[in-house]
DNA sequence: GAGGAATATTCCTGTCAAGGAATATTAAAA
DNA sequence: TTTTAATATTCCTTGACAGGAATATTCCTC
């Protein structure tokens, strides 16, 4: 079972950060561009980017005055492989509630 | 672009809830079983299950005195398809930072 | 080197969510 | 029908986190 990083999930669970990620999907952007396109204020953008950066979702490249942010693929790969290994097991178990109910009864009346 | 539900992500971003989900992977469980296996207190378990239930990650079946919780596959499918559509676009853009830098320069010096 | 962009950081405040403890609810069992 | 088991709900408190505003930092340009 691949380990899911809670920090990845919690970083993505904030709407503005999810928007940033959706935006960066199209390619790298500077803080200013993100700020403008999402209608945020610059400090908040920087803060959200820091959270995304700390959790490894995003990486920075300094270019003179500017910081260019872009997505890192690893966290998404990890998340994906978790979900898929997940679905594999779920598929087997799915629609087997009746089996479980029978087990439960057996526990009660041995 | 498939829409990711923030509520799915935020529900999964709490460690105890993620543990519950990992546990339910093996099959449906009652509140008591979850409580015991994770060493939680029963009220907290119920609260976490409510959050998971509200976000559609989990569903309940009442069986006499007990409530049997199990995973619903839909949120995971949605999450998976989002990530994969995501990775498709990222793949194209990946390693194209140089292109972007050139664009930036063009913007500055037209 | 002074002024001005672009970005990060700090401090403050309010909100919200999680845990603890107690209690309510429902169904089973005696 | 009283008691007991399984679960949900409420109230309270505390801590984390997001936004606002101000300020610090870094680098460019003149």
From TrEMBL, chains A, B:
Region forming the signal peptide: none
Family annotation (InterPro entries): ArsR-like_HTH (IPR011991), HTH_ArsR_DNA-bd_dom (IPR001845), HTH_MetalResp_TranReg (IPR051081), WH-like_DNA-bd_sf (IPR036388), WH_DNA-bd_sf (IPR036390)
Name of protein: ArsR family transcriptional regulator
Domain HTH arsR-type per the UniProt entry, residue ranges: 1-91
Keyword terms, alphabetized: DNA-binding, Transcription, Transcription regulation
MF annotations from Gene Ontology: DNA binding; DNA-binding transcription factor activity
